[in-house]
User: Fold these one by one.
Assistant:
Number 1:
Amino acid sequence: NAGVTQTPKFQVLKTGQSMTLQCAQDMNHEYMSWYRQDPGMGLRLIHYSVGAGITDQGEVPNGYNVSRSTTEDFPLRLLSAAPSQTSVYFCASRPGGQLNTEAFFGQGTRLTVV
Amino acid sequence: AQTVTQSQPEMSVQEAETVTLSCTYDTSESDYYLFWYKQPPSRQMILVIRQEAYKQQNATENRFSVNFQKAAKSFSLKISDSQLGDAAMYFCAYRSASSGTYKYIFGTGTRLKVLA
């Protein structure tokens, strides 16, 4: 009954460092996406994937890379961390063929870039 | 482009009372879904209630109900008999019903405080 699992839950990075936020789901969902949550701005879409091998950009993709080699995993890579990337990151998934289903979210990763 | 607006950054309600959180949206589509998500201090995003735009009947889930006014593009959440556990950030979200749609549009959230 794991659902969507994100690791780590907290991370502090120095400016210029790179890292990967992990996201895994065990529900065989086709759609996966990454959002960032900033105070007063709600959640904004970074990247998304509609299936293994298929990814595309969302609203705020700059500074982030993604790949989707399997249905289960959708890692988010920060190439060179900047203080503007300090945020809470959420991974979400949902079935692709069922229009009326909601998105299932991970517990989030709080990232601080100093 | 679609937008979602939550004009109340913060609301307070006395325990056992009723509170309504407001949400308006803008879209040119006729078929879509609307959601209310709850985010407690644990950060977990929890679905509270969902409304399909083609359904005229307002959705209800126990103490939670919505007032969906499609013509006015309004989607408010009513919480009855408020409990301390209802204290959280609440997000209104929109998603198109078009096939292949992946993107949720979120409002900026309303922080609900429940007073004992």
Number 2:
Amino acid sequence: KNQVEQSPQSLIILEGKNCTLQCNYTVSPFSNLRWYKQDTGRGPVSLTIMTFSENTKSNGRYTATLDADTKQSSLHITASQLSDSASYICVVSGGATNKLIFGTGTLLAVQP
Amino acid sequence: DTGVSQDPRHKITKRGQNVTFRCDPISEHNRLYWYRQTLGQGPEFLTYFQNEAQLEKSRLLSDRFSAERPKGSFSTLEIQRTEQGDSAMYLCASSPRVFGYQETQYFGPGTRLLVL
């Protein structure tokens, strides 16, 4: 079954600290992997997108990594800010219909 | 604002009533998607259009749900005889048609539905 699992489910960090969010997937065939940021009550906003040939991609303080062999991805946030408080959703495109398969997200709270 | 817009942003209705949501995609995006998101979960695919053609429907889309995109621009999602289990955020996304596998979907702000 095509699935995307994320950990941790929630995370609280202090402003200025770094953190890493994890994503494991079992989608086959694999097309690409994206990380979205979703503020409370808003639609998701794309942060990064990677194909199987890309190992890392950065977007400002966000850096995503992909290991297509182990089917794992991580999103590293550097020097966190209060505005980083949101849900971060890992989304894998693939399977027989190349559909987007969403993880349940990691809820990040950055405290002052 | 040239992003995806959705209307209304919030809707409270009584069980058994019909509701209709509207989505205006980014201009010239020919793909349009509807998702449903419940609290603490990621979005679940409902249906998608390429231009005016509805190409795929999820099994989540019961016969009480219908979606249209009559002119290939805006889309509507109607829920008939609403049930409390329909309470969720309904998200719309659009994307341009690109070749390859790096299509990015741009999401609207969502319509939050509460069925009492």
